[in-house]
Amino acid sequence: MFDSLSDRLGGILDRLKKRGALSEADVGEAMREVRRALIEADVALDVVRSFTDKVRTRAVGAEVVKSVTPGQMVVKIVHDELIAMLGSDAKPIDLEAAPPVPVLMVGLQGSGKTTSTAKIAKRLKDRVGRKVLMASLDTRRPAAMEQLATLGKQVGVETLPIVAGQSAVQIARRAMEAARLGGFDVVMLDTAGRVTLDEALMAEVAEVKAATGPHEVLLVADSLTGQDAVNTAKAFDERVGLTGIVLTRADGDGRGGAALSMRAVTGKPIKLIGTGEKMDALEDFDPRRVAGRILGMGDVVSLVEKAVENIDAEKAMAAAERMRKGNFDLDDLRMQLDQMEKLGGLGGLMGMLPGIGKLKNQMANANLDDKVIRRQKAVIDSMTKKERRNPKLLDASRRKRIAAGSGTKVEDVNKLMKMHRQMADMMKAMGASAGGKRGGPMAG
Ligand code: GDP
């Protein structure tokens, strides 16, 4: 989401860092460039102005004059002000209330509201062991109710049985009652959405809010809609009152403007961001980490967290052991590809490592992206068990069959085989030099 802004700011600040001394004019010029970069990223104009003003004032002040490396200092100021703009501290969902705690989900249709409801329910169940009940209040769209029920089954969270003919408020009351009787900790209320903001929608949401007294009112907004997302949040906050924002489609190619302006314009924190369609594609929004990522300072913390969550340590150890012995087969390669994909593909992984921006661009040029990973997995999936264990079996006719089976070209199969051979050789060499040490090059 922040890629192009990150590139722009990185360039501007790099140039600044190289300078020995900085005049007021230098800072002014850099701030004009920063301003342009933020506007192009679709950040609200008021927010841009106040941001560059603050940075300029601090940068031309005594702080910089006294510091040894003025350029570095400016970078630090930009970093600090970026964090302030994003809201300083991460604000997780607050469930500190007597159970069952109602959480109201609001937003426009298509923003990802139902998906986010299920993602949050799953997270509360998995991470903090809460017993969650979900209820859809979308009385006009039976499909929306069914969608929530389906997602509930998928993530192992109960949904309130559908009773035809009830109003949104009646369903909400029934959900609270069922939660009380059933000993649930949290009730997620997925309100109806509309394609556009209208008074009927607002009135219904306000009514449900009054009836249930939710502890959190979360607006789900689509980051791809840029400033519209911010305006939607403002409108909902003024009419019903919000406690936070869930910003979806952060995995898309939005310019970042919604994420960057949301807090400053609405005063409400972004609590979570949706990063994909899968049920675990949800991340905490931590201003410090986001600022670090934008300025290319890396994000080792979230990388480590993600790795711990997603990687099956035992499997990885077993694979590493086989690799060390030089028995790296195609099943092992497939597992490696799986893990790469889980870590958000090479793209996601790279963005989190410090100083890796340039390398990431090179990788993108080499086309080692998620699509390639998926294609490679498809190739492996079209092989028989025997072939995966013993790649030597793969003669021309087998390769042709595999290409046809996986919807790829023989060329793709050949490339994968070459990659496998190179990795196997490399691992064998590393394994041999590592002697009998535990683990291996990819033990993680
Ligand atoms: P609702 O009408 O607001 O309830 O929207 P849905 O929850 O039905 O979501 C609409 C579509 O957006 C679905 O296809 C979701 O899978 C997709 N979606 C939701 N959140 C995200 C996200 O963070 N990233 C991506 N790529 N897709 C998302």
Automatic annotation (TrEMBL):
SMART domains: AAA, SRP54, SRP54_N. Keywords: Cytoplasm, GTP-binding, Hydrolase, Nucleotide-binding, Ribonucleoprotein, RNA-binding, Signal recognition particle. GTP binds at residues 107-114, 190-194, 248-251. Its EC number is 3.6.5.4. It holds the Pfam family SRP_SPB. It comes from the Bacteria. It is an enzyme of class 3 (hydrolase). Gene3D superfamilies: P-loop containing nucleotide triphosphate hydrolases, Signal recognition particle SRP54, nucleotide-binding domain, Signal recognition particle, SRP54 subunit, M-domain. Residues 269-282 form the SRP54-type proteins GTP-binding domain. One of its GO terms (cellular component) is plasma membrane. GO terms for molecular function: 7S RNA binding; GTP binding; GTPase activity. It is a peripheral membrane protein. It catalyses: GTP + H2O = GDP + phosphate + H(+). SUPFAM superfamilies: P-loop containing nucleoside triphosphate hydrolases, Signal peptide-binding domain. Composed of three domains: the N-terminal N domain, which is responsible for interactions with the ribosome, the central G domain, which binds GTP, and the C-terminal M domain, which binds the RNA and the signal sequence of the RNC. Belongs to the GTP-binding SRP family. SRP54 subfamily. HAMAP family: SRP54. Part of the signal recognition particle protein translocation system, which is composed of SRP and FtsY. SRP is a ribonucleoprotein composed of Ffh and a 4.5S RNA molecule. This is Signal recognition particle protein. It comes from Ancylobacter defluvii.
